[in-house]
Amino acid sequence: MRNTSRWQWLPSAVAYFFKSTLLLWLLSLLYIIAGEGRRDLWPVLAGCVFYEAANLTLKVCSLKDPNFVNIAVSLLHSTVTSTSVMVVLLCEWMDKGAGKMFDHKELFSGIWSGAFKALCFSCGYFAYDQWDMLDNHLYNPWAPSILVHHALLLICFTLALYRHVTINYLILTLVCELHSIFLHLRRVLRMLGLRTEKNLRTKIEWGLHWLAFFSARVFVHWFITYKLIKDSSKFPHGIELPLAFLGMVGMNVLNYFLGIDLVKACQKELIKSS
Asked: Cα 262–177–93 angle (5° rounding)?
Protein backbone atom coordinates (compact mmCIF):
# COMPACT_ATOMS: atom_id res chain seq x y z
CA MET A 1 0.00 0.00 0.00
CA ARG A 2 1.34 3.43 -0.96
CA ASN A 3 2.65 5.52 1.94
CA THR A 4 0.54 8.61 1.21
CA SER A 5 1.80 10.59 4.21
CA ARG A 6 5.36 10.37 2.94
CA TRP A 7 4.51 11.23 -0.66
CA GLN A 8 1.57 13.57 -0.11
CA TRP A 9 3.52 16.42 -1.70
CA LEU A 10 3.76 14.58 -5.04
CA PRO A 11 0.31 15.43 -6.53
CA SER A 12 0.87 19.14 -5.92
CA ALA A 13 4.39 18.95 -7.33
CA VAL A 14 3.12 17.20 -10.47
CA ALA A 15 0.45 19.85 -10.98
CA TYR A 16 2.87 22.75 -10.44
CA PHE A 17 5.46 21.22 -12.76
CA PHE A 18 3.11 20.70 -15.69
CA LYS A 19 1.37 24.04 -15.17
CA SER A 20 4.78 25.71 -15.22
CA THR A 21 5.84 23.95 -18.40
CA LEU A 22 2.55 24.90 -20.05
CA LEU A 23 3.02 28.53 -19.01
CA LEU A 24 6.56 28.53 -20.40
CA TRP A 25 5.25 27.04 -23.63
CA LEU A 26 2.63 29.77 -23.92
CA LEU A 27 5.11 32.56 -23.19
CA SER A 28 7.54 31.21 -25.77
CA LEU A 29 4.75 30.99 -28.35
CA LEU A 30 3.61 34.56 -27.68
CA TYR A 31 7.20 35.78 -27.92
CA ILE A 32 7.73 34.04 -31.25
CA ILE A 33 4.47 35.41 -32.64
CA ALA A 34 4.79 38.97 -31.34
CA GLY A 35 8.53 39.37 -30.93
CA GLU A 36 9.70 37.65 -34.09
CA GLY A 37 6.69 38.35 -36.26
CA ARG A 38 5.73 34.72 -36.79
CA ARG A 39 2.09 35.48 -37.58
CA ASP A 40 1.80 32.11 -39.30
CA LEU A 41 1.59 30.55 -35.83
CA TRP A 42 -1.67 32.27 -34.90
CA PRO A 43 -3.71 29.08 -35.64
CA VAL A 44 -2.12 27.55 -32.52
CA LEU A 45 -3.82 30.18 -30.39
CA ALA A 46 -6.96 29.84 -32.49
CA GLY A 47 -7.00 26.12 -31.69
CA CYS A 48 -6.70 26.83 -27.97
CA VAL A 49 -9.57 29.32 -28.09
CA PHE A 50 -11.77 27.11 -30.29
CA TYR A 51 -11.57 24.04 -28.07
CA GLU A 52 -11.89 26.06 -24.88
CA ALA A 53 -15.01 27.66 -26.37
CA ALA A 54 -16.37 24.20 -27.15
CA ASN A 55 -15.68 23.20 -23.55
CA LEU A 56 -17.52 26.24 -22.18
CA THR A 57 -20.42 25.69 -24.58
CA LEU A 58 -20.95 22.17 -23.29
CA LYS A 59 -20.87 23.43 -19.72
CA VAL A 60 -23.44 26.10 -20.55
CA CYS A 61 -25.63 23.29 -21.90
CA SER A 62 -25.81 21.88 -18.35
CA LEU A 63 -23.14 19.24 -18.88
CA LYS A 64 -21.35 19.66 -15.56
CA ASP A 65 -19.22 16.50 -15.49
CA PRO A 66 -15.72 17.76 -16.42
CA ASN A 67 -14.64 14.27 -17.49
CA PHE A 68 -17.54 13.95 -19.92
CA VAL A 69 -16.94 17.45 -21.29
CA ASN A 70 -13.25 16.68 -21.77
CA ILE A 71 -14.00 13.48 -23.68
CA ALA A 72 -16.64 15.21 -25.80
CA VAL A 73 -14.18 17.94 -26.80
CA SER A 74 -11.59 15.25 -27.52
CA LEU A 75 -14.12 13.65 -29.86
CA LEU A 76 -14.56 17.01 -31.57
CA HIS A 77 -10.78 17.35 -31.95
CA SER A 78 -10.42 13.87 -33.41
CA THR A 79 -13.19 14.59 -35.90
CA VAL A 80 -11.83 17.98 -36.95
CA THR A 81 -8.22 16.82 -37.11
CA SER A 82 -8.82 13.56 -38.95
CA THR A 83 -11.01 15.35 -41.48
CA SER A 84 -8.44 18.08 -42.13
CA VAL A 85 -5.58 15.58 -42.32
CA MET A 86 -7.43 13.34 -44.76
CA VAL A 87 -8.26 16.36 -46.94
CA VAL A 88 -4.58 17.38 -46.93
CA LEU A 89 -3.45 13.87 -47.86
CA LEU A 90 -6.09 13.43 -50.55
CA CYS A 91 -5.24 16.75 -52.19
CA GLU A 92 -1.53 15.95 -52.17
CA TRP A 93 -2.10 12.45 -53.50
CA MET A 94 -4.18 13.81 -56.37
CA ASP A 95 -1.62 16.53 -57.09
CA LYS A 96 1.70 14.68 -56.68
CA GLY A 97 0.98 10.99 -56.32
CA ALA A 98 2.07 8.68 -53.52
CA GLY A 99 5.63 8.29 -54.81
CA LYS A 100 6.53 11.95 -54.53
CA MET A 101 4.41 12.55 -51.44
CA PHE A 102 6.41 10.13 -49.33
CA ASP A 103 9.85 11.09 -50.59
CA HIS A 104 12.19 11.93 -47.71
CA LYS A 105 12.76 15.52 -48.79
CA GLU A 106 9.02 16.06 -49.09
CA LEU A 107 8.34 14.57 -45.66
CA PHE A 108 11.21 16.31 -43.90
CA SER A 109 11.38 19.82 -45.35
CA GLY A 110 8.27 20.07 -47.50
CA ILE A 111 4.93 21.40 -46.30
CA TRP A 112 1.79 20.05 -47.90
CA SER A 113 -0.96 22.52 -48.63
CA GLY A 114 -2.93 23.13 -45.44
CA ALA A 115 -0.61 20.95 -43.36
CA PHE A 116 0.96 23.79 -41.39
CA LYS A 117 -2.36 25.25 -40.27
CA ALA A 118 -3.77 21.81 -39.47
CA LEU A 119 -0.77 21.02 -37.29
CA CYS A 120 -0.99 24.42 -35.59
CA PHE A 121 -4.68 23.96 -34.81
CA SER A 122 -4.09 20.48 -33.38
CA CYS A 123 -1.18 21.81 -31.32
CA GLY A 124 -3.58 24.34 -29.83
CA TYR A 125 -5.89 21.51 -28.82
CA PHE A 126 -3.16 19.67 -26.93
CA ALA A 127 -2.35 22.85 -25.01
CA TYR A 128 -6.04 23.33 -24.18
CA ASP A 129 -6.43 19.69 -23.16
CA GLN A 130 -3.35 19.82 -20.96
CA TRP A 131 -4.78 22.79 -19.10
CA ASP A 132 -8.26 21.27 -18.86
CA MET A 133 -6.90 18.07 -17.31
CA LEU A 134 -4.73 20.02 -14.89
CA ASP A 135 -7.54 22.40 -13.95
CA ASN A 136 -10.08 19.62 -13.38
CA HIS A 137 -7.65 16.99 -12.05
CA LEU A 138 -8.46 14.55 -14.86
CA TYR A 139 -5.26 12.56 -14.47
CA ASN A 140 -3.55 10.19 -12.09
CA PRO A 141 -1.04 12.28 -10.07
CA TRP A 142 0.90 9.13 -9.17
CA ALA A 143 1.37 8.19 -12.84
CA PRO A 144 0.58 11.25 -15.00
CA SER A 145 1.29 9.51 -18.30
CA ILE A 146 -1.31 11.56 -20.18
CA LEU A 147 0.32 14.80 -19.05
CA VAL A 148 3.73 13.53 -20.13
CA HIS A 149 2.24 12.47 -23.47
CA HIS A 150 0.75 15.91 -24.10
CA ALA A 151 3.90 17.73 -22.97
CA LEU A 152 6.04 15.70 -25.37
CA LEU A 153 3.59 16.31 -28.21
CA LEU A 154 3.64 20.04 -27.54
CA ILE A 155 7.44 20.05 -27.59
CA CYS A 156 7.66 18.07 -30.84
CA PHE A 157 4.88 19.96 -32.59
CA THR A 158 6.11 23.38 -31.51
CA LEU A 159 9.74 22.74 -32.46
CA ALA A 160 8.62 21.54 -35.88
CA LEU A 161 6.40 24.57 -36.37
CA TYR A 162 9.13 26.97 -35.25
CA ARG A 163 11.71 25.42 -37.58
CA HIS A 164 9.47 24.45 -40.51
CA VAL A 165 10.75 20.86 -40.57
CA THR A 166 9.06 17.43 -40.31
CA ILE A 167 5.64 19.06 -40.68
CA ASN A 168 4.48 16.35 -43.08
CA TYR A 169 5.82 13.58 -40.85
CA LEU A 170 3.75 14.96 -37.98
CA ILE A 171 0.68 15.25 -40.17
CA LEU A 172 1.00 11.53 -40.86
CA THR A 173 1.11 10.80 -37.14
CA LEU A 174 -2.24 12.57 -36.81
CA VAL A 175 -3.94 10.06 -39.11
CA CYS A 176 -4.45 8.03 -35.93
CA GLU A 177 -7.07 10.58 -34.87
CA LEU A 178 -9.38 8.75 -37.26
CA HIS A 179 -9.25 5.81 -34.87
CA SER A 180 -9.47 8.09 -31.85
CA ILE A 181 -12.97 9.03 -33.01
CA PHE A 182 -14.12 5.52 -32.14
CA LEU A 183 -12.28 5.57 -28.80
CA HIS A 184 -13.92 8.81 -27.70
CA LEU A 185 -17.32 8.01 -29.21
CA ARG A 186 -17.45 4.72 -27.32
CA ARG A 187 -16.83 6.50 -24.02
CA VAL A 188 -19.30 9.29 -24.77
CA LEU A 189 -22.08 6.84 -25.64
CA ARG A 190 -21.35 4.77 -22.55
CA MET A 191 -21.46 7.82 -20.28
CA LEU A 192 -24.76 8.88 -21.86
CA GLY A 193 -26.20 5.42 -21.30
CA LEU A 194 -26.74 4.93 -25.03
CA ARG A 195 -24.42 1.97 -25.50
CA THR A 196 -25.91 -1.52 -25.38
CA GLU A 197 -23.58 -4.49 -25.29
CA LYS A 198 -23.82 -7.14 -27.97
CA ASN A 199 -26.38 -5.53 -30.25
CA LEU A 200 -25.90 -5.14 -34.01
CA ARG A 201 -24.81 -1.52 -33.78
CA THR A 202 -22.13 -2.39 -31.25
CA LYS A 203 -20.83 -5.22 -33.44
CA ILE A 204 -20.61 -2.93 -36.46
CA GLU A 205 -18.94 -0.28 -34.34
CA TRP A 206 -16.32 -2.75 -33.12
CA GLY A 207 -15.66 -3.87 -36.68
CA LEU A 208 -14.99 -0.28 -37.73
CA HIS A 209 -13.05 0.22 -34.50
CA TRP A 210 -10.58 -2.55 -35.35
CA LEU A 211 -10.34 -1.51 -39.00
CA ALA A 212 -9.41 2.02 -37.95
CA PHE A 213 -7.03 0.77 -35.27
CA PHE A 214 -4.95 -1.32 -37.66
CA SER A 215 -5.14 0.97 -40.70
CA ALA A 216 -5.06 4.48 -39.25
CA ARG A 217 -2.96 3.81 -36.18
CA VAL A 218 -0.81 0.66 -36.32
CA PHE A 219 -0.01 0.65 -40.05
CA VAL A 220 0.60 4.39 -40.31
CA HIS A 221 2.88 4.46 -37.28
CA TRP A 222 4.79 1.43 -38.54
CA PHE A 223 5.15 3.12 -41.92
CA ILE A 224 6.54 6.28 -40.34
CA THR A 225 8.97 4.23 -38.27
CA TYR A 226 10.06 2.35 -41.39
CA LYS A 227 10.63 5.63 -43.25
CA LEU A 228 12.69 7.03 -40.39
CA ILE A 229 14.93 3.96 -40.38
CA LYS A 230 15.17 3.74 -44.18
CA ASP A 231 15.98 7.44 -44.62
CA SER A 232 18.04 7.89 -41.45
CA SER A 233 21.20 8.68 -43.44
CA LYS A 234 19.39 11.54 -45.20
CA PHE A 235 18.56 13.41 -41.99
CA PRO A 236 20.82 16.33 -41.10
CA HIS A 237 22.87 16.10 -37.92
CA GLY A 238 20.67 17.40 -35.15
CA ILE A 239 17.85 16.47 -32.82
CA GLU A 240 15.26 15.78 -35.53
CA LEU A 241 16.00 12.10 -36.15
CA PRO A 242 16.57 11.03 -32.50
CA LEU A 243 13.48 12.92 -31.37
CA ALA A 244 11.35 11.52 -34.19
CA PHE A 245 12.58 7.97 -33.72
CA LEU A 246 12.10 7.97 -29.95
CA GLY A 247 8.68 9.49 -30.45
CA MET A 248 7.64 6.73 -32.84
CA VAL A 249 9.01 4.04 -30.54
CA GLY A 250 6.83 5.52 -27.83
CA MET A 251 3.84 5.63 -30.18
CA ASN A 252 4.24 1.98 -31.12
CA VAL A 253 4.57 0.93 -27.49
CA LEU A 254 1.41 2.87 -26.64
CA ASN A 255 -0.36 1.22 -29.57
CA TYR A 256 0.59 -2.20 -28.21
CA PHE A 257 -0.90 -1.51 -24.79
CA LEU A 258 -3.91 0.17 -26.35
CA GLY A 259 -4.48 -2.94 -28.46
CA ILE A 260 -4.42 -5.12 -25.34
CA ASP A 261 -6.98 -2.87 -23.65
CA LEU A 262 -9.19 -2.96 -26.74
CA VAL A 263 -9.08 -6.76 -26.88
CA LYS A 264 -10.22 -6.92 -23.25
CA ALA A 265 -13.00 -4.40 -23.87
CA CYS A 266 -14.13 -6.20 -27.01
CA GLN A 267 -14.22 -9.55 -25.23
CA LYS A 268 -16.22 -8.04 -22.40
CA GLU A 269 -18.81 -6.44 -24.67
CA LEU A 270 -19.19 -9.05 -27.39
CA ILE A 271 -18.24 -12.38 -25.83
CA LYS A 272 -18.53 -12.43 -22.05
CA SER A 273 -21.83 -10.55 -22.11
CA SER A 274 -23.45 -13.42 -24.05
From this structure: 125
